[in-house]
Amino acid sequence: MNNKTWGFVLTDLVLIKHNFMKTINDLLRKFKSVESEIRNISGKTFTIEEDENGMLDKECPHIECHAKFKVNEEDWRNSEKAEIAFCPQCGKNSHKSEFLPASVKEMVAEEIGKRISANWANDQVIPQNIVTLQTSAASTNISICPGCDSRFAINDTAMFCPCCGSNIEN
Q1: Angstrom distances, CA of residue 62 to CA of 19, 49, 102, 106, 114
Q2: Which residues pair with 133 in a beta bridge?
Q3: Quick check: helix, strand or coil at residue 154?
Q4: Inter-CA distances, 39 with 33, 42, 114, Å
Q5: Predicted TM-score (pTM) of this structure
Q6: How large is the angle between the packed helices 3-39 and 102-122, nearest 10 degrees?
Q7: Distance between CA atoms of 38 and 12, rounded to whole angstroms?
Q8: Are 161 and 80 in contact (CB under 8 A)?
Q9: Straight-line distance from the first to the last Cα atom of the chain, in angstroms, rounded to the nearest whole number
Q10: What is the pLDDT of residues 66-96, one digit of tens each?
């Protein structure tokens, strides 16, 4: 090779190195951008729309029960035991946030995955409200707690009010 050819080879190597470093830096910037979006997910929300009777789906978080029931959204939000709720079937209590049905958790997790992928592929910002979900079909068998007037529905026999925990007879 003559000196002119070596000059082209060295120039090509410098360009390759420059483009490679640019690609790595772009990738690092992309990682930081996606990382920032992921860190902000904890502040994001999702919405569950009530059925026509104002009821939301709930599920007992206790492994031996997992009873599915509905509760009036307003009664649930305003119950006297602010952060605690009760399973109408087994009567065990937990923090209200734990009564979110497994199916809803799965749908939200799937949507978050889609949003992260879209952010990676197209720089789409993850919106504040990640997804709006529909509750299951309205229940016609609505019970009212004699202790606190909360409205709820369960297909099995209800023994406890989900809002106040009162032992009731259905």
Answers
A1: 55, 24, 12, 17, 29
A2: 48
A3: strand
A4: 10, 7, 16
A5: 0.73
A6: 150
A7: 38
A8: no
A9: 95
A10: 999 999 989 988 877 778 999 999 999 999 9
**Tell me, what's the pLDDT at 11?**
52
80: tokens are: 């006297």
Over the stretch 89-122, which tens digit does the pLDDT of each residue have? 999 999 999 999 998 888 888 888 888 888 878 8
> What per-residue confidence (pLDDT) applies to 7?
45
Closest residue by Cα to residue 33 from 117, 111, 123, 130: 123
User: Whose CA is closest to 143, among 130, 132, 153, 133?
Assistant: 153
CA 52/CA 75 separation, integer angstroms: 15
Give the residue carrying structure tokens 């772009």: 26
What is the b/e burial string over 60-70, where b = at least 16 CB atoms within 10 angstroms of the residue's CB? bbbeeeebbbb
Amino acid identity for residue 111 in this structure: E
- pLDDT for 14 beyond 50: no
Please check whether residue 135 is in contact with residue 53, taking contact to mean a CB–CB distance below 8 angstroms: no
Which pair of structure tokens corresponds to residue 16?
A: 């390759």
165: left (phi over 0), alpha (psi -120 to 50) or beta: left
The Cα–Cα gap between 11 and 34 comes to: 34
